[in-house]
Design brief:
Order of helices and strands: EHEHHEHEHEEEHHEEHHHHHH
Shape: globular
Strand content: 15-25%
Radius of gyration: 21 Å
Oligomer: single chain
């Protein structure tokens, strides 16, 4: 019996997170003979290959994997290798740091069947088992209420025919390859629908600030998205900023620089940035102090992001800050 839906995963050097994903997939309510799992990875260490070879899903034939040269593949290249190795006519993409609930795959298949030929975006929430990590000063997470223009591949379902027609993901982009593929599909009148009940959970990963700042370099390719798909600009604040925090930051910096001469009144200019950038920890004086203490970190992140985007804007000749 041929599988009805394929779970496709791109991975690199996250064997523990990948194991948790595979364990969650092994607990799906959808019958095992109705789905397949294909993982493509370019991990440098041997742990990922060993996991994919010996996991029980591999033993019963549900799981297969594609091994690529270590460190050689942007996410789009790994995803392309995986979905091309799959057999099912419906492809559900997820990330190696997601942990879906047991009904995720059944819901994804039913949603795809209700909307034949459409791209289906599900909802993504921070993993409830890692909720306390949201209090880490700097962390990585995903929280997505569909539909979004970005078509994040942590939880999205494509008909294989659409992937074949559009030749899959752009393998040269470091970021934005998922949004670019969905934008190209929409220009060909492919339906793009939201199905919030197709829910998965994404990891919450605390990251030291210096490492987080270094990781932002990959966003240099984001201006290429609006160069190739100008219609995407309407989804960016004022058409030229990546985030509202970037739009408000210059005012906040002016307010801080002029604070002494204006007896602090110019700090009011920083309120819009503070409201959109600083995390909310709840009411109370202690939480307010904790929130304000995050301002230097958040400003460093926003400034680094804007500097990276400025370089990318010059490189791709497409302004985006």
């Amino acid at each position: 019996m041929s599988p009805e839906i394929a779970v496709v995963v791109a991975s690199r050097d996250r064997p523990l997170r990948l194991r948790w994903l595979l364990e969650a997939l092994s607990e799906q309510t959808l019958e095992r003979d109705r789905f397949e799992v294909v993982v493509a990875h370019d991990s440098r260490g041997p742990e990922t290959d060993a996991l994919l070879t010996h996991h029980p899903l591999a033993s019963d034939g549900t799981l297969r994997h594609v091994r690529r040269a270590p460190g050689s593949s942007p996410p789009g290249a790994n995803r392309n290798a995986a979905w091309r190795a799959a057999r099912a006519p419906i492809v559900a993409f997820t990330d190696d740091d997601c942990r879906p609930p047991c009904d995720w795959l059944a819901n994804a298949l039913h949603a795809a069947q209700r909307h034949p030929g459409a791209i289906v975006q599900g909802a993504t929430q921070p993993d409830p088992d890692e909720h306390r990590l949201l209090y880490a000063p700097v962390h990585h997470k995903q929280a997505i209420e569909p539909p979004t223009a970005w078509a994040q591949t942590c939880n999205i379902v494509y008909p294989r025919a659409i992937l074949e027609r559009l030749h899959g993901f752009d393998e040269q982009r470091q970021v934005g390859e998922d949004a670019a593929l969905a934008a190209a599909a929409r220009t060909q009148s492919v339906d793009y629908v939201a199905e919030p009940e197709v829910l998965t959970y994404h990891a919450v990963v605390p990251v030291p600030l210096p490492r987080y700042l270094r990781s932002l370099k990959r966003w240099e390719d984001l201006p290429l998205l609006v160069k190739d798909h100008p219609g995407m600009r309407r989804h960016f604040p004022l058409g030229v900023f990546w985030k509202w925090t970037h739009a408000w930051l210059p005012l906040a910096l002016i307010g801080a620089l002029c604070a002494r001469r204006t007896y602090g009144l110019s700090l009011l200019l920083a309120l819009p940035w503070a409201k959109t950038s600083l995390p909310w920890y709840g009411p109370g004086k202690r939480n307010l102090v904790f929130r304000v203490r995050q301002a230097p970190r958040r400003a460093a992140i926003d400034l680094t992001e804007m500097a990276v985007l400025a370089r990318g804007s010059l490189r791709h000749r497409s302004p985006l800050l």
